Amino acid sequence: MGRLINREVCKSELRQFLINAEDKYLICIEACSGASYWSRFAQSYGHTVKVVSGKMTRALSLHRNKDDFADAYSLYQLLFMPGLTSCQIRTEEELAMSALISEKEALLKNLNEQTNKTRSFLLETGEYDDVVRGGPSAVYAIDRYLNNLQSDYSEQRYSIRCFKVLKETIVFLSKRIDEINELICEYALHNEKAKLLMTIPGIGAETAVPIAIGAKDISRFDSARQFQAFFGFHTCHSGSGGKVVMGKMASNGDR
User: pTM for the complete prediction?
Assistant: First the structure.
């Protein structure tokens, strides 16, 4: 007890140690890829797990150089720090939905890029009649352009190919986004917290699911402002001499 041991173990050794341990341990894990898996694994064998933010380990590190021992020692210190806020341990299902939501955001960004390309190229061809503001309107504008071509369009053969490629990409991205939306709605119908959130006017499945996954333990927030801060919706403040002035929207929180 009280002795630090610097020893590296592989994954199979760690599993056997957690399974065969006679005593139940208090384990601290840095929030990273795989943290939820190892937390669930350790908890299934009766161990207590705390997952802490990587920012806290770096802040407590006494070494200028980053290495595994320095990180492990910082985690050891965090275990005994009063008021330590532990990160959430998510299930595999919740992680899958989180990955789908991130994938949808990436697809939407790509779809907007393709729509902007289509709008720009249509203007270069002299097509000003159609307003392109999204995937369906972009597809409609491309079809309209192709249908209005004259019989002799040898000079426009590369424009035709370009528009066909853009259309195929937009249709593909829109289809994938619709598939993810269906999965999100299906998950919302089976998640009790998401169903409860959807009873609030103006909140649908696409808003309820990220909240239910991101803040499934709402008791960890002492106030509504803390809840806002967790999702990045709060303002900066500056105070001195007992006077606090609220500023612009802060950039920290869950983007």
Answer: 0.75
CA–CA distances in Å: residue 204 to residues 63, 71, 125, 185, 255: 47, 41, 40, 9, 19
* Listed range (9-18, 55-64, 241-250) with the worst mean pLDDT: 55-64
Three-state SS at 240: strand
DSSP H helices in the chain: 11-20, 35-44, 54-60, 68-79, 92-124, 135-147, 157-190, 192-197, 205-214, 224-230
Closest to 51 in 3D by CA, of 40, 66, 35, 37: 35
As a whole number of angstroms, the distance between CA 189 and CA 169 comes to 31
Contacts 24+ apart (CB under 8 A), 182-190: 183/97, 183/100, 184/97, 184/100, 184/101, 184/104, 184/209, 187/93, 187/97, 188/212
CB 152 within 8 A of CB 160: no
Q: In which residue are the tokens 């005994």 written?
A: 80
* Band of residue 255 on the pLDDT scale cut at 50, 70, 90: low
What average pLDDT does this structure show over 194-205? 92
pLDDT tens digit string along 73-97?
888 888 877 777 778 888 888 899 9
Distance separating alpha carbons of residues 180 and 111, to the nearest angstrom: 14
